[in-house]
Amino acid sequence: MSTTFTYVDAGAVTLEAFGTHLRAYLGLFQALPKLEFIYLALTARLFQAAESEFYHTLHGVRDHAKSVSVLDYSAFAGLGKQKNVWRALTWYR
User: For residues 1 and 74, which has the higher predicted lDDT (pLDDT)?
Assistant: First the structure.
C-alpha cells in the first residue's frame, strides 16, 4: 500500500511553485516506504520538466531513478463543473 499525493498545476508558466511544493514535503516523501505522486495539469506542456524536477528533488539527479518510474498519462474529463480536460503524470516509488 502506498500513500498518494497530488499536485494541481493551475496553469503556471514555470515550475517554481512545484519545486517549492516538493521541497516542503521532501522529508515526508523520503520517510514513506512507498509513494505515488500525481501531477495534474490542463496541458502536458511542463510534464517533462516536472518529471526532471521530481527526480532531482527526491533523488538529487535529473535522470530516471530505478525506484521511480513514470507510469502513465491519463485524461480526466468533466471534473466538477469545468469542461476542461485534465492530464495526469504519475510517478511511483
Answer: 1
